Structures are given as structure tokens and as C-alpha cells.
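I have a small job for you when you get a moment. Would you make up a two-line entry for one protein for me to read? No commentary is needed, just the two lines. Write everything out right here, beneath this request.
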Amino acid sequence: MTDLYQSQRAMRKMRQQAMDRGVIAILDVGSSKIACLVLRFDGAEPAGVEGIGALAGQSRFRVIGAATTRSRGVRFGEIHAMQEAERAIRTAVQGAQKMARVRVDHVIACFSGAEPRSYGLEGAIDLAEGQVGAADVARVLAACEMPEIGPHREVLHAQPVNFALDHRSGLGDPRGQIGNRLACDMHLLSVDESAVQNLAHCIHRCDLELAGLASSAYVAGISSLVEDEQELGAACIDMGGGATGLSIFIKKHMIYADSVRLGGDHVTSDISKGLQVPLATAERLKTLYGGVVATGMDDREMIGLGGDSGDYERDSRTVSRAELIGIMRPRVEEILEDVRARLDAAGFEHLPARQIVLTGAGSQIPGLDALAARILGQQVRLGRPLRVQGLPQSATGPGFAAAVGLCLFAAHPQDEWWDFDIAPERYPARSLKRAVRWFKDNW
């Protein structure tokens, strides 16, 4: 991934070819599970009708295969054991292929870690002919100054979120309109380079071609936020196993994304350490009896910890539900307080609606929405992903928000920087060529 602009263009071309052939796979690489969905496309809309909006280039698709497996070799949303992650991905892909009765060669993947950072860019150009064309859109995108994202960072998303033509702002697609000066606002999301390279290398080791990459926070927001929430301003909090993703949408575009390196697995770990039980038992206790708000009845509700150590006194221990809640609540509060700090840093309080939607497998803890409303101080609701055609009932829960959003991302891609023909010296991946040209022009 040394030349980001060209590699992203190559992946977009590969994805389109796979969609034209009719089948492509979706891969959600998480810290607690790896999910794979196989999509069959019935056909796309004719070329040239799509815009630059969030639902550009619509096409019909159906889920024909689905499989999940326990994640191995992934921590904090990033691969840390290549062979284990490879085996887990192979297991999920083979299960989905078996259900779909078709072989897939191309996958679109999403991941939640890699320390995402958001930047707001702006650029403006004067129009020579008066009417805006695709070349003018490419020029105004190239006019957006690339920020110093730091060494060993890659640009994952570079999306135009607003166009202004002369005094008219809020344009979704300026092509074909007449004016004298075109301006653009763009959201750029950078991630750690090594995390992207490790994921790409792991997918290649599975004999698969990578046809696209996306942030889990972005695709979870696409599937969990309703149209009005995306339009008026809302935040999606995707509480996964190893990381909690955060994305903010307004005018149907993502304008901010971040990640907290805490998730449901940390709650499970706290239960395991606090009650001195195996992780599998702690996960069962969290799922069946967990919560974050204790009542008077919880002191009297006793839970058997169980066990097969052979020590009767140890295996017959019980604990009250109030004690279990007392272990879980501090960690959940820590996660929500970290999310609130990032929302405050992003200026979320200035949005018109300020709706917050909780999704992800970690959002199913009873009482979480009330606790989140108390800590975040906003309107909070629990979100589930949109229903897509052919999706199995087992894959409709909040834990599959990223996977379903990735299906929508594949079928309805938003145009990004690399979808336009930009001059090589304006490539966003490397600023060295621009520096050389500047020296030639000025010395």
C-alpha cells in the first residue's frame, strides 16, 4: 500500500468487476467474532446516473451465504497473531461459501482498530467554462490541502461532504450546474499503516483478493442510523469486543470517526478476575445475568458460578446479581466516559439533533441505554442494523451492524477522492512529489 491513491483506485475497479460477475464477499474482522456474508448482485444502475452523495450508484443485492466464527489472533480490532487470524478468516469464508454454494475470490473488509483520526479539509477553484464537470470536481478535490497525518499512516476514507458554488452551499453534486467559483469540504480519515498492511496480508494468505476497506465505525453508522438521524446529526457508538467505534453523521455524510480501545471483552475480563472464574464462565454470566443498574431484588437473586475443578466448595459457589453488576458497571462507565470525551472534542453539542445510537454486541447489556443517557447527557436509543434481503435471522442483531453496513457500503458506495482522475502530483498518499514540484517552480 505504498501508493494509496492508485491502490484504492485498483480496489474500486476490482470491486466493480466482482459485482459485474455477480458475487462478492463481506468480511467483518472483529475482536470477538469474524463474520462473512456472501452477496449476489442482480444488476447495477446504468453508469453515469450516480451522484457524489451517500447512496451513489445503487444496485440490488441479496445475501446468499453467512457464517461466523470466534475471532482468534485479533486484539483491539487489529491482527496480532497472523496464523490464528488466517485460520479464523478461512473458517468463516468457507462456511459462507458452503451455504452459498459458490466460490468467492474478492472480499470487502472492515476493521475497528488502527487508531483512526479525522481531518476536515477545504479547497476552492475558479471555473474556466462556468459549467461544473467531472474534471472540475477532481480539481477542487485536489485543491484540498493534505494535512500532516504523520509517518506510517494511511488514508482510509477521503469523502467530499459538501460543495459550494458561488454563494450557494450544501450542494450534494455540483456537476452540470453553472457558476464561477467552486468550493468543497472533505472529511479525511487516517489509520495506522501497519494495521492495514497486516489485514491485507492476512487476507491474501487466505487466497482472497482485497476489493475494498472500510472503517467499522463508518459502516455501523450507515446500517444503524435512520435517514433523519443521518440528515440532522447523530452519533453511532459501535460497542464491539475489543474496541468501541464512534462515528458522527450529518447531511448523510460522516464527518468524524474515532475509536476507544475498550469493549465488551474487557467487561468479561473484569468478571473473570473479580469472581475468579474462567473467561468462558464470565462470558456466560455477563450474557445471562449481566446489567449496569442494580435494584433491591438483585441482592437476593443468587447466581451459581459452577465449574468442573473437582473441588465441591469451589464449584458450588454463588454470587448475587448485585455483585456482578458492581463489577460490570465501572468498566462500562469508563467506556462511556471515554466516548463522551471524544464527542466533546469533536464538537458534537453543536449539531442540530444530537441523537446517539448504541449498537454492536456490547450494547445488549440491560440498562445500558439509561446509563449512557445519564453519562452522555443526550437522547440515546439502542439501534439494530437495517434488514437486507436474504439476511439470516441469526445475523440481524446489533452485533452485525458493521457487517450489514459493509453490505450497504459495497452496494451503495459513496464517491471518494480516488474515484476522480486527479493529477499525479496531487496524490494524497505522498507529498514528496508536490514538494519537488514546488522547488522547481520557485527556485
In short: The domain at 118-189 is CATH 3.30.1490 (Dna Ligase; domain 1).
